[in-house]
Amino acid sequence: GSLVRTFTPFYFMVEPMDVLSVRGASVIMNCSAYCETSPKIEWKKDGTFLNLVSDDRRQLLPDGSLLINSVVHSKHNKPDEGYYQCVATVESLGTIVSRTAKLTVAGK
Asked: Which residues does UniProt call coiled coil (predicted)?
C-alpha cells in the first residue's frame, strides 16, 4: 500500500531574540529551522525582505542566522535598528515566520 504522509515536521529550533548593541559592534540574530528538506531562510527587517546578496555588512550564516557587521548608527542614519523576522520556506510545504526580534542600538 501507499504511505500517506500527513504531517511533515517543519519548525523553528531557534528564533531570534531582542538584541541591544552598540555602534560598530557585530550582531548575530539567531535563527534555525528544521525540516527534512532544507528550508530556504530569508530575513525581514521592519516587514521588508533584506537583499543580502548585494549587502556587504549583512550576511546569512550557514545555520540561517543573520550576521550584521559593524552596526551603523547615527542621528540621521539608523539602518540596522528595527524589527527583524526570520522567514523559512520549504517549497512543497509553505512558509513559517519567526517571532519578531528588536535590535536596539545604544547611544554613546
From this structure: none
